[in-house]
Amino acid sequence: MSSYVRKKTPGDTEWFVHDRFGMFIHFGLYALPARHEWIKTREFISEEKYQKYFEHFNPDLLDAREWAKKAKAAGMKYAVLTAKHHEGFCLFDSQYTDYKSTNTPCGRDLVREYTDAFRAEGLKVGYYYSLIDWHHPDFTIDKIHPRRNDADAEEQDRGRDMRKYAQYMRDQVTELLTNYGKIDILWTDFSYPAMENAPAWMKCRGGKGKDEWESEKLIATIRALQPDIILNDRAQIPQDLVTPEQERDPSNYTLRDEETGEYYTWESCQTFSGSWGYFRDEQTWKTPPMLIRLLVKTVANGGNLIMNVGPTARGFFDDRANAALDVYADWMKYNSRSIYGCTMAEPEFKVPDGAYLTQSEDGKRLYIHLMDFPFHRISIEGLSTDQIDYAQFLYDGSEAFYETKTYTTAAGKALPPKTTFQVPAMAFEKLNVVIEVLLK
User: Minimal CB count within 10 Å: which of 115, 277, 321, 348?
Assistant: First the structure.
C-alpha cells in the first residue's frame, strides 16, 4: 500500500483520486464573440451590447452525446460543465432568472443534456457555478466588474445587496443539486482580495470572499442536499479539493498539511490553449508532448488533471481541441494503467532526470515514464532486483531487461541499490515511453 496519507475530506474523494483525469467544459455567451470568457469585463461591454449575444445564442450543432464520447475516448473519467460563468448566463432552466439558455433561440436546458449524456457513457458528472455574476442587479460593482470604470459606477452600485445575491446563489445551487440527480462535483469560483487603492464607495475595497458569498450557508446547503459531493476550495473555506490553475509546477502550491504531514486531495485545472472559453484566434495551443507531460507530472505528484475544452458558438469542439483530445486518446489507450489508481512513487525510489515515476496505490506496480528519451538505459536508485517480479514496456507488452548494481562510498558505506533498464536505441513511435515494473 502507498505510504502517503491523504487528509480526510468531507466529500467522497476515493473514486476521484483513482480516476485522476477529467474534462472541463467552459461554454456560455462568450463563445459568440470568441475572444475569451472574460470579454465582458476586459472590454467593458455594456449590458445592452452584451445582450446581442443572448439574442443570438443558438448552438445548433451541440450534441452532448458527442462531447461525452470524446471525453471517454480520451481516457477522462469525469467532467465539469459551467452551469453559470461570471457573465451570469445560465445553461439550465432556473426559475430564479430569465437569463438562461431556455430563453434564447437555443431553447434547451443544456445542463440536462450534458448530465444525461455523460452519465450514459459511465462518466461522473460535475457542475461549475460562478460565485461572480456580472449580470445580477444585486452583485456589487468591484475591481473586476465590467462597470467599474463607468463615470456613474458609484450611482449604479447604490442599493445593490450582496445578501440578496447570496440567497440567489443558494437558490440556484439548490436547483442544480435537486433537479438533476446525483452530482459528483461542484466547482465554485472564485474569491479575490481587496485592493489598496479602491474607490471609497466600493464595498470591501473591491474584493469578495467568504463573507460576501455567505460561504458557510452555501456549503451547508450543498452538503445537506448532496453529502458526498466533492467541493473545491474557492469559496474561501477549505473543503475537498485544492485547485491550482494553469500551474505547470505543483511544487509552487502547498499540497500538504504542514501540521499533520497529510497530503491534500488536489486537482490541476489546465487549458489546451491560453483561454477557457472558445477563442477563435488564440494560437498558444499546447503541443502533444506538453499535454502528456502535464498528465504524467500531475499524477506523479499525487494529483488529478482536468483539461478544458471551450466549444464553439455552434456547440462543437473545433479541430484544434479534437486534435488535443486525440493525443490523450492515443496515449491512454496503451498507458492508462500508469494513471488510473496511481499516485506518487514511494520515496525510496529516486526519479532520474528526464523521467517521472507513478506507482499504483496498492504498491504492486511502478511506472517509469521516459519523457526525454534516455537512449540505451535508464537507472532507478532505491530499486533492486529482489523487489522485481517482471518488467515490460507498457505500450506493446515487450519484456524490459534490467540488472541491479550496488555501490559503496570510499569509506565502505553501502549506498542504495540502483537498477538499470535497457531501452531500445531507436525511439518508440508513441509519446512518453512507459516501463511497467511489477513488484513482488
Answer: 348
